[in-house]
């Protein structure tokens, strides 16, 4: 088990915030971390279980009745539950009442009835960083802002660097020793995202085209976003391509990075660059191996 740097922030949030959401891509370690924080002291419910999901959807208010505190996993699968949580935490404003996890950006899920603004803190949990894998917190950024010279404790070069980059940071993938097995995991991951999670966050008319679009996005990673150019290869116009790319962004697969300008208006109006949040997933989509 890896020591996640976000754990301290989550625990601090639970001390002064009624609802805390651990948000990040599927299989990034959210459930493991939430279970670790809850230990045996807080009731744990996962909406990946059919019976639990049915109970939450059929009677959200009844589902929460009698719970002083709870951990609810994969909250995006039962959006109506958020309204019931809002009612509960408005009735009892005790900090740390609900710890939620979600594999989608809740603010982009159409069926979410309430954002819990002012009641909920969101902590992102992305795939493992190299510092987390190595078990040593990086001080590079802190030292840079202090004006200190960067120090190098362990140099990683050549083939070792390539292997680290191509392995990515998903816990399940990096435990596999053979590269073929890592790529198999990533391909299965993409299939699961398209067949299940995309349906949870959006109404997609052309679901079958999503894997092809994701592969095209992989070829454009690191480049300026051109919706017409990316979508044209699969017969999508720029409006539909932008919508579908937004779905992948809400699932924490890709990220559009705004350019840096001293003029803030230019930052908002100039074209962003497209990046994948995990280098291992990107490598698998582009069929790259050491």
Give your account of this protein's structure.
InterPro entries: AAA_14, DUF4143, P-loop_NTPase. The chain is an alpha/beta fold and 290 residues long. The chain folds into 2 domains: 6-124, Rossmann fold (3-Layer(aba) Sandwich); 156-285, Arc Repressor Mutant, subunit A (Orthogonal Bundle). The chain is 47% helix and 10% strand. It has helices spanning 6-16, 30-38, 50-58, 60-64, 81-91, 130-134, 140-145, 158-167, 171-174, 179-201, 210-219, 227-232, 238-250, 264-269, 279-285; strands at 19-23, 44-46, 70-73, 98-102, 120-124, 254-257, 273-276. It has a 5-stranded parallel beta sheet, with helices on one face. β3 (70-73), α5 (81-91) and β4 form a beta-alpha-beta unit.
Helix content: 40-55%
Give the CATH architecture of the largest domain. Orthogonal Bundle
CATH class assignment of the largest domain: Mainly Alpha
Q: Oligomer, anyone?
A: single chain
How many discrete domains?
2
Low-confidence stretches: none
InterPro entries: AAA_14 (IPR041682), DUF4143 (IPR025420), P-loop_NTPase (IPR027417)
Organism: marine sediment metagenome
Protein name: AAA domain-containing protein
Pfam family, one: DUF4143
Secondary-structure topology with pairs:
Layout: H1 6-16, E1 19-23, H2 30-38, E2 44-46, H3 50-58, H4 60-64, E3 70-73, H5 81-91, E4 98-102, E5 120-124, H6 130-134, H7 140-145, H8 158-167, H9 171-174, H10 179-201, H11 210-219, H12 227-232, H13 238-250, E6 254-257, H14 264-269, E7 273-276, H15 279-285
Parallel strand pairs: 1-4, 1-5, 2-3, 3-4
Antiparallel strand pairs: 6-7
Helix pairs in contact: 10-15, 11-13
């Amino acid at each position: 088990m890896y020591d996640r740097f976000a754990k301290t922030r989550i625990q601090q949030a639970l001390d002064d915030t009624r609802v805390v959401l651990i948000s990040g891509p599927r299989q990034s370690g959210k459930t493991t971390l939430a279970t670790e924080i809850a230990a045996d002291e807080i009731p744990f419910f996962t909406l990946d279980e059919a019976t639990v999901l049915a109970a939450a959807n059929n009677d959200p208010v009844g589902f929460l009745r009698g719970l002083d505190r709870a951990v609810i996993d994969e909250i995006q699968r039962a959006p109506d539950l958020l309204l019931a949580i809002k009612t509960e935490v408005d009735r009892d404003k005790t900090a740390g009442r609900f710890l939620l996890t979600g594999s989608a950006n809740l603010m982009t899920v159409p069926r979410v009835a309430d954002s819990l603004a002012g009641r909920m803190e969101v902590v992102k949990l992305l795939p493992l960083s190299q510092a987390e894998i190595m078990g040593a917190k990086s001080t590079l950024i802190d030292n840079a802002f202090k004006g200190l010279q960067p120090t190098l404790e362990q140099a990683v070069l050549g083939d070792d660097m390539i292997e680290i980059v191509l392995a990515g940071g998903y816990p399940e993938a990096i435990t596999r020793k053979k590269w073929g097995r890592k790529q198999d995991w990533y391909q299965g991951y993409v299939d699961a995202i398209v067949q299940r999670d995309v349906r949870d966050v959006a109404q997609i008319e052309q679901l079958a085209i999503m894997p092809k679009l994701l592969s095209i996005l992989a070829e454009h990673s690191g480049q300026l976003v051109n919706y017409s150019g990316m979508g044209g290869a699969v017969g999508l116009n720029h409006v539909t391509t932008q919508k579908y790319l937004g779905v992948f962004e809400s699932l924490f697969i890709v990220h559009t990075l705004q350019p840096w300008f001293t003029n803030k208006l230019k930052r908002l109006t100039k074209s962003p660059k497209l990046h994948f949040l995990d280098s291992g997933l990107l490598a698998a989509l582009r069929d790259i191996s050491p």
